[in-house]
């Protein structure tokens, strides 16, 4: 009943050739250019962040709220200038604990969610109700801004479903919650996307950084648009590249999209990010094992399968048996391991093609010849095959010009970026 040829065919459906890769990069660049003229003509939202790059000299103590995945972090950070900083205090808590509380499900409420955030801010203050602090807020969802502090959530992504936040100005919700908590010495002054935070954080330490990306539960990229043609002040644009639509999804992508919280949205993200790779893997296994049982694999499962180098593929075997109830032979497991690898490799190649679309947009318009792309997130940091396939794809598309660009991990840049944004709000 297990047909290895079928698995090979499915792997083919997840394979992106070098030619396709170049076409994807060019199409992404095209969509970006259209979006610059008029975001309505593009599948990229091209959201203005109302902030440029930091000088590296920003100083002072700030509160940073980092909200965007299942874990929320609040930090007190001291910026020391010269690209230096100290984390003075940090609290981190999940937004959902099974059976205990859930602030992201459809049964939760905006008030409960923001009261939880205000509680964490209070914890970081350690009883200090006197010292005035500016707060930078990394809010990692598509938001429409009219200035650095005024950001309205357009739509939840990453399967968040809390009612009463979409369409609202997020820092108004936060301010109300701080008041309810009796915290009056913290003033929210800046809301930025996590990609923007990563770019600010990396550029604070290293000037030749123009692109910031998150490659984790969700996926998205921002860059500094130089506005070379119009002479406008350079500004970071949050592309919301996870919403890029001009790709050819395979049947598993289509099927997952239909089952997801927001069908039709975030098509690139659903093909590449950590929240979704396990879902695609599960749907492919459904096809291979001829069943429509709901499987729930995660990208960590896929990582462990790919990393299993044992002769009997013991770990992979256990993961597959736990997830499907089926005990597979070693040859079958080898094919399944190749499938997991193919999904991860496709993800890295698609993400890279989008980076190259942006690199082409920046070419000749920035002073540096060499540029860094700052990336944060568990998939980039930990998933096997990702970094090497990003580098391979950069070389396939850019040839020897690939030597003029690299990707660098900016670990935990979300918190630091929020503090920098708070500091820049004063400028
Ligand atoms: C959101 C982006 C965010 C990305 C990474 C996506 O789902 O739409 O705003 O940058 O996740 O957290």
Name the features.
binds beta-D-glucopyranose, 427 residues, six-stranded mixed β-sheet, 14 helices, 43% helix, alpha/beta
Word description of this protein:
Helices cover 43% and strands 20% of the residues. The chain has 14 helices and 15 strands. The chain is globular and about 70 Å long. The chain starts with a helix and ends with a helix. 49% of the residues are buried. The mean pLDDT is 96. Bound molecules: beta-D-glucopyranose (BGC). Beta-D-glucopyranose binds next to helix 5 and strand 12.
Distinct compounds present:
beta-D-glucopyranose
Shape: globular
The mean pLDDT is: 96
Question: Span from first to last CA?
Answer: 66 Å
Strands, count: 15
What class, by secondary structure content? Answer: alpha/beta
* Residue fraction in strands: 15-25%
Uncertain ranges: none
Order of helices and strands: HHEEEEEEHEEEHEHEEEHHHHHHEHHEH
* Biggest sheet features: 6 strands, mixed
Specify Rg, calculated over alpha carbons. 22 Å
Spatial order of strands in the largest sheet:
1-13-12-11-14-15
Q: With helices defined by DSSP (H or I, 4 residues minimum), what is the helix count?
A: 14
Query: How helical, in percent, are the residues?
Result: 40-55%
């Amino acid at each position: 009943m297990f047909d290895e040829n079928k698995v090979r065919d499915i792997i083919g459906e997840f394979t992106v050739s070098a030619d396709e890769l170049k076409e994807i990069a060019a199409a992404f660049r095209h969509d970006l250019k259209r979006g610059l003229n008029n975001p309505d003509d593009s599948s990229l939202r091209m959201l203005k962040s109302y902030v440029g790059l930091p000088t590296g000299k920003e100083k002072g103590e700030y509160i940073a709220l980092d909200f965007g995945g299942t874990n929320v972090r609040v930090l007190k950070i001291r910026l020391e200038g010269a690209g230096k900083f100290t984390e003075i205090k940090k609290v981190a808590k999940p937004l959902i604990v099974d059976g205990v509380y859930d602030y992201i499900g459809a049964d939760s409420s905006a008030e409960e969610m923001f009261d939880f955030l205000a509680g964490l801010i209070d914890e970081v203050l350690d009883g200090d109700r006197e010292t005035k602090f500016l707060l930078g807020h990394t809010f990692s969802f598509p938001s429409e801004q009219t200035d650095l502090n005024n950001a309205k959530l357009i739509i939840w992504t990453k399967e968040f479903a809390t009612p009463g936040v979409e369409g609202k100005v997020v820092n108004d919700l936060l301010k109300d919650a701080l008041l309810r908590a009796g915290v009056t010495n913290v003033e929210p002054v800046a809301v930025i996307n996590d990609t923007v935070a990563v770019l600010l954080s990396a550029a604070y330490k290293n000037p030749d950084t123009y692109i910031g990306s998150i490659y984790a539960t969700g996926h998205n990229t921002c860059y500094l648009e130089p506005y070379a043609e119009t002479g406008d002040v350079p500004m970071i644009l949050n592309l919301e590249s996870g919403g890029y639509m001009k790709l050819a999804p395979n049947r598993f992508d289509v099927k997952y999209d239909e089952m997801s919280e927001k069908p039709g949205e975030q098509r690139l993200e659903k093909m590449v990010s950590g929240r979704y790779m396990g879902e695609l893997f599960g749907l492919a296994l459904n096809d291979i094992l001829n069943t429509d049982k709901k499987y729930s694999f995660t990208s960590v499962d896929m990582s462990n399968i790919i990393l299993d180098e044992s002769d009997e593929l013991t770990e992979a075997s256990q993961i597959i048996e736990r997830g499907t109830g089926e005990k597979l032979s070693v040859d079958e497991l080898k094919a399944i391991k190749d499938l997991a690898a193919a999904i991860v490799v496709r993800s890295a190649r698609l993400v890279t093609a989008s980076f190259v679309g942006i690199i082409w947009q920046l070419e000749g318009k920035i002073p540096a010849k060499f540029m860094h792309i700052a990336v944060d997130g568990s998939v980039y940091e930990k998933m096997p095959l990702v970094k090497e396939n990003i580098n391979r794809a950069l070389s396939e598309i850019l040839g020897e010009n690939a030597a003029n660009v690299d990707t660098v991990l900016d670990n935990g840049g979300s918190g630091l970026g929020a503090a920098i944004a708070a500091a820049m709000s004063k400028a």
